[in-house]
């Protein structure tokens, strides 16, 4: 199944573009599901059909779904209280009723991830279009499965889980309580669920598509989004320039704004596959308006960007790890080696990545940023590196 993740700065019209893209694909005969986790029904407003917790048929081959974060959060809390009943009773804690539970921050994101996983596993559609939140929140969402799985493995490593059958014996030997069975089961279930979501996000059939309005604010947002995506090894398959003024606007009082848009579009075209969507003169509402938007279709592309390691041992005695980071500023970059992981920071953005196997036996020998690419030099550790003929 093909998956298109659509995001952009707030107010850029990403929900409208997601709805129009889904409608266009459905009218070409593709079984399409458009998914959103917005608390307000902006997706339904664009499609002209109310959406909610149950999938709704919008048009032939087109289904819309806005999962209910509240219900999912209540179910999770009820399950936790049931599994932790012994601990709660021991502490004298009173249980929460479902009626008094409201979702905590982040519940919508977790609900969307689960819906994304469920839709991918169901295989009931050929195309899944996900209307993500604004770019900063969307990028945090894309990073969530990888980060949570890393935290789980640090807090409860697989080797410790493997020894859970010996928990009673270890508890007596150590003289301290050992984690309960339900904790191991919960961690294993979360790891499995997060792994399924991570597999969908990493699949070559999953692409990220940016939506932005050409202008100073849009240009800044695209620059930040491009760097943040690159840090995750991603690149947009297309940049949708939304609400572009028509050519005739150049001879009216809108001439200054039209010229500003053209300048930004020229800059974007140097780095992205830019697709323009002309301003309709009003906010699109309903399938008739959506049909009039020339949104890009489904392309056989991938958003994944390779981070290759080149062998320069014969010439310089080093291996070089190439990490594309377009738009990065040298003074904002920071690198920290932690065991077999590397912490890469670009300003407020940060990612912890495992080192390729060959680099784990090396020491960091330096780094440089050239032409939008971070190049990290690794020198083989004599104590770990095998002798070369």
Core attributes:
2 domains; eight-stranded mixed β-sheet; alpha/beta; 389 residues; Rossmann fold; 12 helices; Immunoglobulin-like
Helix content: 25-40%
Number of strands: 15
Radius of gyration: 25 Å
Strand order of the largest sheet: 3-4-2-5-1-6-7-8
Can you tell me the residue ranges where pLDDT is under 50 for at least 5 consecutive residues?
169-178
User: CATH first level of the largest domain: which class?
Assistant: Alpha Beta
CATH topology of the largest domain: Rossmann fold
Number of domains: 2
CATH architecture classification of the largest domain = 3-Layer(aba) Sandwich
What kind of sheet is the major sheet? 8 strands, mixed
Note the beta-strand portion.
Answer: 15-25%
The DSSP helix count reads 12
Q: Report the average pLDDT across residues.
A: 83
The rough form would be described as globular
Distance between the termini: 47 Å
Alpha-beta classification: alpha/beta
Would you identify the CATH H-level superfamily of the largest domain?
P-loop containing nucleotide triphosphate hydrolases
Describe this structure in words.
The protein has 389 residues and is an alpha/beta fold. It has 2 domains: 2-69 and 103-291, Rossmann fold (3-Layer(aba) Sandwich), CATH 3.40.50; 309-380, Immunoglobulin-like (Sandwich). 39% of the residues lie in helices and 24% in strands. A hairpin with a 2-residue loop joins strand 14 (362-370) and strand 15. The chain is globular and about 70 Å long.
